Amino acid sequence: MELVAALDIGASWTRVAAARPSGELLAYHTYPTPRDSDEIQRLISSSLNNLKSEVSVSEFRAVGIASVGPLSARDGMILGAPNIGRVRVSVGDAVRRVHDGLIVMLNDCNAAVLGERVFGAGRGARNIAYVTISTGIGGGAIVDDTLLLGKDGNAAEVGHTVVDYKYNVRCGCGGYGHWESFCSGRGLLRLARLVLGSKHAKKWRKPEQLFADARRRDKKALKLLEEAAKINAAGFANVINSFDPEVMTIGGSVALNNTSLVIDWAVRYLRRYILNRPPIIMPTPLGEKAPLMGAVAAALNPIEEAIVR
Which of 24, 92, 200, 267 has a 20 to 30 A CA-CA distance from 44? Predict the structure, then answer.
């Protein structure tokens, strides 16, 4: 039995799994993502070794990696990802310490949309988009059955599309006015200061507190989330107008834990911004495992441009 291994290196969590050729997960584990390059490398190597022991194999057929970016995918490198402390990590080197075979690396959201195409809501569709709203905001797209990768593997970084030009709000990547800087988990707290003022924004130290207040019909929380819904609608429209998908799935903890307050509310405002015929929009049926399942798909059917050299 030829098994593959998959890793999803996210801003908050790193997920690892061993999978059958069918995509069935035989082993699955979640770890907090470190903020130090050496610690991330150690986690990658040790978790893969642990998987080998758990599923009783001496070698995996291939290892698929989904990772926060920006990347140099062919070099197996994370290049200073802002959501994990701007560290540079040689993921390929960490994998090669315990694996002699094929390695495939994708941006986490490019992986997620591939996961949707192979295992999720995109089966049978030729044009699919995926958006995550979590610690950051990201996206991936398949257009005419082709996964968009870009020269370094960073195509479809939709969280860094510009949704504002006047507030002078700086994103963690260094750019200004990016969708992520307003509506990601971190961005919502920044948006609260802009919409409500620092005095009212102080009551929320985590996005979970904001959403809990909104569910209790707190007027300030609802005012803030309505503004976020309009910005998210503009972001969704950017994706739809750019890639013209048949299906667009939404993932990430902020969206999946608060679907009515994030996804449904944004869809209400979508027609204000949209040009193309709207796609089916839904939470990803793969849940938090969407990027991981894309890494499984990439390991099972490697894409030449994503193979780590």
Answer: 24
Q: In what order do the strands lie in the sheet with 71-72?
A: 71-72, 77-79, 88-90
Q: Is residue 161 domain-shared with residue 222, that is, in the same domain?
A: yes
Angle of CA points 112, 261, 15, to nearest 5°: 30
User: CA 256 → CA 68, 89, 173, 208, 263, distances in Å?
Assistant: 19, 29, 24, 12, 8
CA distance 202 to 50: 43
Question: pLDDT (tens digit, 0 to 9) for every residue of the chain, 309 residues total?
Answer: 589 999 999 989 999 999 999 999 999 999 999 999 999 999 999 999 999 999 999 999 999 999 998 999 999 999 988 888 888 999 999 999 999 999 999 999 999 999 999 999 999 999 999 999 999 999 999 999 999 999 989 999 999 999 998 888 999 889 999 999 999 999 999 999 999 998 888 899 999 999 999 999 999 999 999 999 999 999 999 999 999 999 999 999 999 999 999 999 999 999 999 998 999 999 999 999 999 999 999 999 999 999 999
Question: What secondary structure does DSSP assign to 31-48, as a single string?
Answer: EEPPSSHHHHHHHHHHHH
Structurally, the chain folds into a number of domains equal to 2
Phi, psi of 281, rounded to the nearest 5 degrees: -120, 130
Q: What sign has the CA pseudo-torsion 270, 275, 278, 281?
A: negative
Based on the fold, state whether residues 78 and 129 are members of the same structural domain: no
- Smallest CA-to-CA distance from 122 within 39, 245, 218, 275 is with 245
Cis geometry, peptide bond prior to residue 285 (ω within 30 degrees of 0): no
CATH number at residue 24: 3.30.420.40
161 and 54 part of one domain: no
Query: By residue range, what is the domain housing residue 48?
Result: 4-106+289-306
What DSSP designation does 274 have? -
